[in-house]
Design a protein that fits this description.
Its cofactor is [4Fe-4S] cluster. This protein is of the alpha/beta class. It is 37% helix and 14% strand. The protein has two domains: 359 residues, no CATH class; 174 residues, Glucose Oxidase, domain 1. The longest helix is centred in the N-terminal third of the chain and has 31 residues.
Length: 599
């Protein structure tokens, strides 16, 4: 039986979204009726579309078994996307074997927050999601495709591709992951070296050696940040093949899944045996399932922004209260770094997403009656892929956890509620990732130190200015101010202060990423400082109380709200590292709690 809270939240999302969702579905129905324009193009137009197709040229002109549009985030600078170099040829071969064709419709940018962390380039990160959606839209605008395959992994890439897939929701969409790199040194070892470097205890050579041992080959980073949270969501929401998220790159099983994904994309086109457009897959129930998966795994805080934006592209309106209510009834079933010591390879080996989906279904915490790219029912996603004599099959997954330090059943969770918390109070609304924060740090009341950028925090730390309990406030970091960069480079500094025995918390209208961990952090504060939010009225020495247990951010000092808002000179945010190109994005972007979208 479906959990009453899950049912209630779903019903109110349906009611809240009714008008917009109906209009969206009507548009998708009309687009499906019109079909792809390939057959209706002029001879010149068709010749242009097929001229580069090589051996598939005649098939495109004369056959109608289906043409796959591939949208790829391939580049060979980022480990997570480097494996996609091989995918188009694998997909083309699979399509030919099934009587169809495949073409790379276009590429989309893929940037890494880990590379740009703490640099001006990070201020383009959130906006890159909207650019990716737009670029995918351009790729598919030729209207010559019967179905689509999306190749993307990391932070903004998958959400941007999902937004595009919703806009082209009359077409089926199969998302094919690259998989995580094999395990290097433990994430805990890496974090320890980072903290020692921040404290001046080791030099840069030692830091570099540790980083290279952690990030050592092709594939996604192995900690449970935004990239791997994205992969989890694609399974919970029915856009991946079952069990495909965490299979390592360049392995026979990974290649077999890529082949199967291409074939499945053809079979669910309007020319195949089972038409399943994306607009049918990504409904209100699918998004609720995704939110439950987010909580059960202790996933990235970034998804509280991305899921809202992804849903709106399909006429579905989510708000942070939906996330909070679902967190209250969703147990935390996984401990993956930064919420534990294991990485995603260990999680996958312990039973992975198949085990977790089975557990949540049995507890009535997921909608089973959903449409997925595999057909009807989320129960299909409790199975695991296997290669037998070179043939891909799916078998029932593990009936029990293979390591209860990493993955637990619903009957014995790591904690009874989810890993993310909505925060409210006079300061505004915010979110907090509590799954990695020890219970003794869930409530922090202390004076604030106010900063307007993360470099100033680091400078104050290096100058020895933090000697007492403190709540570090970093404001003018919201989407309108500077694109809402992640402030993850503050993690070693704050963790060191906490390790000294100080009570420490972070409050910001910026982001902290899926890698945020040990230190209590109230992030995504809305309204942001540049919009006149109360965070712009704080002064050094004001006392705040951040209470993750109650979901509150309270201003203890009296009279704060009576002050005028502080303003900041943001001129420097407009130039350098491409920021000039994003002026209109900063002008048009919405608030974090509505998806921080500029499209």
């Amino acid at each position: 039986m479906l959990n009453q809270t899950v049912a209630r939240v779903t019903d109110r999302i349906v009611a809240r979204s009714a008008e917009g969702r109906a209009a969206y579905l009507d548009r998708m129905a009309r687009a499906a009726q019109e079909g792809p324009a390939r057959a209706h193009l002029s001879c010149s137009g068709q010749a242009h579309a097929y001229a580069g197709a090589g051996q598939d040229q005649d098939a495109l002109a004369t056959q109608s078994a289906g043409n796959i549009g591939i949208v790829t985030a391939y580049n060979d600078m980022l480990s997570a996307h480097q494996p996609f170099e091989r995918f188009p040829e694998l997909i083309r071969n699979a399509a030919r074997a099934a009587g169809g064709t495949a073409q790379v419709a276009g590429g989309v940018p893929a940037m890494c927050d880990g590379v740009t962390q703490g640099t001006p380039g990070m201020e383009l990160s959130l906006f890159s999601r909207d650019v990716i959606a737009m670029a995918a839209g351009v790729a598919l605008s030729h209207n010559t495709f019967d179905t689509t395959v999306y190749l993307g992994v990391c932070d903004k890439i998958v959400p941007g591709l999902v937004i595009a897939a919703q806009v082209f929701g009359h077409l089926p969409a199969v998302f094919l992951p690259a998989g995580p790199m094999t395990s290097g040194i433990s994430n805990d070892e890496k974090a320890e070296v980072r903290q020692k470097f921040a404290a001046g205890e080791v030099d840069r050579a030692v830091l570099m050696q540790a980083e290279m041992a952690a990030y050592h080959g092709p594939g996604t980073c192995t900690f449970y940040g935004t990239a791997n949270t994205n992969q989890m969501l694609m399974e919970f929401m029915g856009l991946h093949l079952p069990g495909s998220s965490f299979v390592n790159p360049n392995t026979p099983l990974r290649d077999a899944l890529t082949d199967a994904g291409a074939r499945r994309a053809l079979s669910i086109s309007h020319l195949g045996n089972e038409y399943i457009p994306t607009s049918q897959v990504l409904d209100e129930k699918a998004f609720v399932n995704g939110i439950v998966g987010l909580h059960a795994t202790g996933g990235s805080t970034n998804l509280l922004i991305h899921l809202v934006a992804m849903a709106r592209a399909g006429g579905i309106i989510l708000d942070w209260q939906d996330f909070s209510d679902l967190a209250d009834v969703t147990p935390l079933l996984a401990r993956v770094y930064p919420n534990g010591l294991a990485d995603v390879n260990h999680f996958h080996a312990a039973g992975g997403l198949g085990f977790m989906i089975g557990q949540l279904l049995s507890a009535g915490l997921l909608h089973e009656e959903v449409t997925t790219i595999m057909g009807q029912g989320l129960g299909l996603y409790t199975r695991e892929p296997r290669l037998k004599d070179g043939e891909l099959t799916w078998e029932d997954g593990a009936g029990e956890s293979q390591n209860d330090r990493i993955l637990r059943p619903v009957s014995d969770p790591f904690q009874p509620t989810g890993g993310l918390q909505r925060m409210d109070g006079l300061l505004g609304a915010a979110v907090c990732k509590v799954s990695a924060v020890k219970p003794e740090h869930h409530v922090i009341e202390a004076p604030v130190r106010v900063f307007h950028d993360q470099d100033s925090v680091k400078a104050a730390y290096q100058a020895g200015e933090f000697e007492e309990d403190v709540i570090v406030v970093v404001r003018f970091q919201g989407p309108k101010a500077n694109g809402m960069p992640e402030l993850h480079s503050l993690t070693p500094v704050l963790a060191n202060l906490q390790a000294r025995g100080l009570k420490v918390a972070l409050v910001t209208d910026g982001r902290m990423s899926g890698a945020s961990g040990k230190v209590l952090s109230a992030i995504h504060v809305c309204p942001e400082a540049v919009d006149g939010g109360a965070i712009a009225k704080l002064q050094d020495g004001d006392v705040l109380r951040v209470d993750a247990a109650k979901g509150r951010i309270d201003i203890v000092t009296e009279g704060v709200l009576d002050r005028p808002c502080v303003t900041a000179d943001l001129a420097a945010n407009g130039f350098g590292q491409g920021r000039e190109l994003f002026h209109h994005f900063r002008t048009l972007v919405g608030a974090a709690d509505t998806g921080a979208s500029s499209i």
